[in-house]
Amino acid sequence: MPANTDPIYSRLSDYQGGPLIVTAAATVYDISGTIGTDIYKIFTADATNGGFVQKVRFKYAANGTTTSNATTLKVWISSVGSGTPTIGTQAWFYDEIAIPATGTLTTTTTTPVYEVPFNFALPLSYTILVKTTVSQSASTGFLASVIAGKY
Questions:
Q1: Cα–Cα distance list, 9 to 31, 54, 95 (Å)
Q2: Confidence of residue 42 (pLDDT cuts 50, 70, 90)
Q3: Which residues neighbour 5 within 8 Å (Cβ) at sequence distance 6 or greater?
Q4: Whose CB has fewer CB within 10 Å in the chain, the N or C terminal residue?
């Protein structure tokens, strides 16, 4: 018999993001690196009940004088939020998205938004981690926004 026969809905909305994603970690499907240095934590599920993640949105944060480098943003799901996670026991590859190079922007131009869909629940305190494969300028990089809900 199923443990839950009723639909579960989010109790509260949850909107999170992380620091500016600029430093390259690795070009392969591993999680080598350190969270907070070259792996970026952009979401932490509620510590009591977990959460539902709808999607992650990425946008290049231009300063008007620098162009972005083409890169791939790799998204991981992790059971830890600090240190160096271990593949298969603390971190699992989820998806990746290729981002093309962006020209120099001005106050009258914008950059596109890139989305990675989730649409599933994360266990309590699980995190979403992101790595970039090509370093960006120190004053620019990518901003991540996570659209989610708390149970």
A1: 32, 12, 25
A2: very high
A3: none
A4: N
